[in-house]
Amino acid sequence: MRVSFIKMHGLGNDFVVLDAREDALPDISRKMAARIADRREGIGCDQLIVLERSESAAFLMRIFNADGGEVEACGNASRAVALLHGEAATVETAGGNISLEPTAGGASVDMGSPRFDWDAIPLAYAVDTAAMPVAWEPLQQPMAVNIGNPHAVFFVDDADAIDLTALGPLIENDPLFPERINVNVASLVGENHLKLHVWERGAGLTRACGTGACATAVAAIRKAVAQSPVTVTLPGGDLTIEWKSGGTIRMTGPAAEAFRGTFEWDDYA
Ligand SMILES: N[C@H](CCC[C@H](N)C(=O)O)C(=O)O
To answer: HSE-up of 224 (CA within 13 Å, CB side)?
Structure first.
């Protein structure tokens, strides 16, 4: 069976998008998602995104990391899907409903409300999620935030100086995080302006992480080192994050379609 896909990205965080809203596809195994995402023998992407019919929203957006794991949220992909869909819509995800609004060259997405309780992150035991008493030197005292998916946010003097390739997998897979975790390392580089590098759960270092930018901006506002709206500069470019305590998070930024293609389903199943 030949299947069409759309290759898209948000600030270089890239996706293979399968639009199964009209014609349903057979279910996708973890192994198949990883094979599609493989940059050497597959099509190659950070996340595989599958759009399906939904009973409770305009459609369902399923998110598979490059390791094949299905997860709850993907900010950059939400903007790419908004661009593809072409009109405002409420979309179901495993992390809750989000609201998409296409803009010129990208989208603005309401990502819902952040959660801070230790068991909502989730963590393996109760700690103060505003400043967790843990360290992976030189990183220490992260804030934990759930944006539909789990994030640890570390603030340092110079985010560029941290060896995230070495530290990322250690933190991602630490037993403190029963569902693993996305690892964010940020520096304040100007008024309400953060620089951010992200080691993504199930995908590793990416050019950008939308939910990571949301988690980091929320953490900076909670720590009163920044005020909304916050500009987050990632290796792939800038996102604008708006949030006030008690409210939902709005993320605005670019998205783009790269190319379209087809593949033989059975080659990856
Ligand atoms: N690696 C993330 C999913 C993708 C998040 C990222 N690509 C984004 O734009 O938010 C996780 O396992 O929760």
So the answer is: 0
